[in-house]
Every structure is written in structure tokens, then in C-alpha cells.
Amino acid sequence: MSPTIPARAHTVPHTGRPLRSPALYVAGGSTSDGQDPLFLRLPSPPSWDDRPPSARAAERRARKAYFAALDALYQGQVSDEAVDKLQRLVADVRSTSARSALEHLLRVFGFVRREESGPVLVPPAAPCARITIGVPAEEWDADRARLAERYAWPLEWLRMRRFVAGKALVIDWYPLPASSAGAREPVRSLAAARARRRYRGAA
To answer: Annotated region Disordered: where (predicted)?
Structure first.
């Protein structure tokens, strides 16, 4: 499965501030079960607003770029090769919605390279068996199966890096407010808090 569902049109009132890129808010775990809570802000994966024959190949390249961007946040370091490949992909892609998301991944790489403050995405001590995922208002869909398909890439990456459980994972989806700029994300250390604040600012 790959995120190919077109994002729905959504108008946001102009406030004089640049619009933030769509992101998922992932939360899981609790202090009651002896596990530190998990709070993550992940960039939304690209979606194609058209389906030309070349889009399939571009999606495969986009998936690798998306995983590389999340790995950069997870490891606190950037792969120059991944950045070069993403830059070429951005130049090749004609889909407006996909190009916007891919350009945001370039900003993610730029943030990690500038800050050099260590990992931003910190895994829990044990994979979470249940999580909630806040979905951008413009990408919300009441059909849970479609949401799981749309966000197959971030879910796959979270499982790979043992942030969440495998097939037993329970997901509670909900729509974020039209503007989630004020959403707060608790963190476990001062260093992580500073890094995440800078990341949110770069998004």
C-alpha cells in the first residue's frame, strides 16, 4: 500500500503567517503502565493529485525519500546521497501536491543538518500497542481503511523503528483542528524539547 489518495481541497484563512506543512500528531503510552508517553509530529507523506504513468515510479522514489527524512530526525544526521536523490525527484515531479510535500522533506533535511542537536524522534522503551493519530483537517477521511492506506508509509516506518507494535497495533484516528499550530508536544528531556521546538518552527 502507498499513500496515493489525493488530499482534499481546504481553504485556510490568511493570517499573515506562512502556512505550516501538513503533519501527523502521534501519541501513545502512559505513565500508568510504567512507560513514558510517546508524542511525535511526523510530516505527511506525499499524495498525488494525478495519476500519470510515470507517477508509479516517482512514488517508489518518494517512499525512499520519506523514510530517509524520518531516519534523519530519528538519527540526528543527514544522508547527503538521500538529499541529492530527493532534489532530483523534486525537479522531476509534476504533481503539485506531491511536489509540495517533497519540498517539505528537503526542509526537514535542512533542519537536521543545521541544528546538529541529536535525535528529534525518540522511541519509547517498548513499542506502543495503542496510539492516537491526529490527521490534518484537509486530509481527514471518516473511512479508517482509507486513512490506513493514506498513511501506510509513516505506519510502516514506526513499526520498523519499534515505536509501535506490529499487527496487534490499535489506532484511534481523529481530525486535527483546521489550524494545529498551537498543538503542544510534551517531551522527555530539555535537549529533546529544544530540538523539537526548533523542528516545529522549521516545519
So the answer is: 1-23
In sequence order, what are the beta bridge partners of 170?
130
Grid cell of 87 as nine digits: 532534489
pLDDT digits (tens, 9 = 90+) for 99-132: 999 999 999 999 999 987 789 999 998 999 999 9
Predicted TM-score (pTM) of the model is 0.78
Task: Beginning with the edge strand found earlier in the chain, give each strand of the sheet holding 23-28 in spatial order.
Answer: 38-43, 23-28, 130-135, 170-175
Count CB neighbours of 84 within 10 A.
10
Dump the DSSP string for the chain.
Answer: ----PPPPP------SSPPPPPEEEEEE--GGGTS--EEEEEEPPP--SS--TTHHHHHHHHHHHHHHHHHHHHHT---HHHHHHHHHHHHH---HHHHHHHHHHHHHHHHHHHH----SS---SS-BSEEEEEE-GGG--S-HHHHHHHTHHHHHHHHHTTSB-STT-EEEEEEPPS--TT-----SSHHHHHHHHHHHHH-
